[in-house]
Specification:
- This protein has a single domain, classed as SH3 type barrels (Roll), CATH 2.30.30.140.
- It has two helices and five strands; from the N terminus they run βββββαα.
- The protein has a five-stranded antiparallel sheet with strand order 3-2-1-4-5, covered by helices on one side.
- A hairpin with a 2-residue loop joins β2 and β3.
- The radius of gyration is 18 Å and the shape is flat.
Length: 107
């Protein structure tokens, strides 16, 4: 299984960027997202940046990955890692909201 992981750009090197996460550095292909400034968060998937992330999105993904690791190690107290999801109803993406609305009008 492959999972995208947030990394922070340290410096650009042509079409690649030296990125860091959790003390580990990796040279990431940036061709899909273009040149980015130092400090920018990207979603690294198999050595290539697939998306530019906000700091908040990067933190949420990092916490979800921590939760997954914790569960794999037998830890079951992970609610604090999903603070952005606690006490709210999940929201459908806009394209699915439009579909639900269209179906309700047909009924």
């Amino acid at each position: 299984m492959c999972i995208g992981a947030p990394m922070q750009v340290i410096e650009m090197r042509g079409t690649h960027a030296l990125c860091e996460a959790d003390g580990k550095q990796e040279l990431i292909d940036m061709i899909l997202v273009g040149e980015q400034m130092a400090g920018t968060w990207i979603l690294n998937f198999l050595g290539a940046a697939r998306e530019v992330l906000t700091a908040e999105n990067a933190q949420n993904i990092r916490q979800a990955l921590t939760a997954m690791s914790d569960i794999m190690q037998g830890e079951n107290h992970i609610d604090h890692l999903f603070a952005d999801l606690i006490d709210r109803e999940p929201a459908l993406p806009p394209h699915l909201q439009a579909e639900v609305l269209a179906q309700s009008k047909e009924s």
